[in-house]
Amino acid sequence: MAEKFMEKERKALEKLMRREMPVIAGRMAKEHFQNNFRQGGFVNGGLHPWPKAKRLSSGRTDAAGNYGTLLSERKVLFKSIKYIPTDYRVKISNDVVYAPIHNWGGTVQPAVTDKMRKWAWRQFYKSAGIRKNASKKTKSLRLKEVAANPQAQMWKGLALTKKKKLNIHLPQRQFLGESEELNEKIEKKMAEKITNIFNS
Question: Count of domains in the chain?
Fold first, then answer.
């Protein structure tokens, strides 16, 4: 009788570790890492706040100025965190092409194309508050105010640059990686599941 009981527990433990815990740990990890975006920093032995995005201190009044660091209207990085459970383990990843440069920091050197310049001019007029159908007088007044608008000046500089490549340094804003708090939560959940097996 005791052998049958132990065999039942062994099978339950095997199922837990092989199939159930990878899924549970994956869900917990995804939630934990997405919560980093809500808190504006990486949680590992406490919260390590990210350097704030420049747009948040630029005085921008458009929609982008209202989103937190690494967040946008579509929340691409946030939504792209996923987990892939397999036997006894789970892989947490983010396949967005620019995820690594944000997670680890570094320098990017994009080519300055005609398309980029046109886009920069559009951003310039948008930042300066100049609409396409605005009168010449309104446009003239707005252009005089541009000197006091660092955001508009930045876009104008990009549109007029003679450089063929930009040299942009992005500070580290880690959102994926080893976390003491996450490990503790997973270990606690696993202990609860094991206790339930032996108490059932």
Answer: 2
